[in-house]
Request: fold
Amino acid sequence: AQTVTQSQPEMSVQEAETVTLSCTYDTSESDYYLFWYKQPPSRQMILVIRQEAYKQQNATENRFSVNFQKAAKSFSLKISDSQLGDAAMYFCAYRSVQGAQKLVFGQGTRLTINP
Amino acid sequence: GAGVSQSPSNKVTEKGKDVELRCDPISGHTALYWYRQRLGQGLEFLIYFQGNSAPDKSGLPSDRFSAERTGESVSTLTIQRTQQEDSAVYLCASSLGYSGSFNEQYFGPGTRLTVT
Reply:
């Protein structure tokens, strides 16, 4: 079974600075998807960024980018120019390409933005 | 268009009572998922529907938990004889559901269940 680990329960960053959230995962599959979700206090899960494992190029979405290291099974999220609206819980998640469609989530990292 | 909706938003029930939680997926989404999120934790998968069949029920924690789906529409998660450990936020998501392709899961706002 796949597992996802986020080792940072809490992180904080000054507004406009850059912060990196860590995620590692364990799988025996060669192809899969990885995701970062944001959960603000409203509880709504919002997809931030995704990465397909067969793609070597790291995904980027505006101020959000990932560092995907397949051999190390590492998938970190970098948020540049942090904004107050980025404050939320961030979850790393894994999904198989074939078969099981469920998302496997990490425990989350609470990100605080200091003005 | 309308997103995934869930009702009720909050539910307080006494230990031992049965509860029903409802999820309305995005129109046209064939796949529907239920997850549970305990306080301060990540989401745990409960069950996955493709149409009205459930090919993956592996996350249901006990036989007190059951779910059904009408066609490619509404789903109901039922918890019988609720226990305090069932207190959590129950999140529903839907997607286009094509295996082998990326298909984003869109989440509802969840139902916060409190068992007293």
The CA atoms of residues 18 and 80 of chain A lie 4 Å apart. DSSP finds no helices and twelve strands in chain A. The mean pLDDT of chain A is 95. The radius of gyration of chain A is 14 Å.
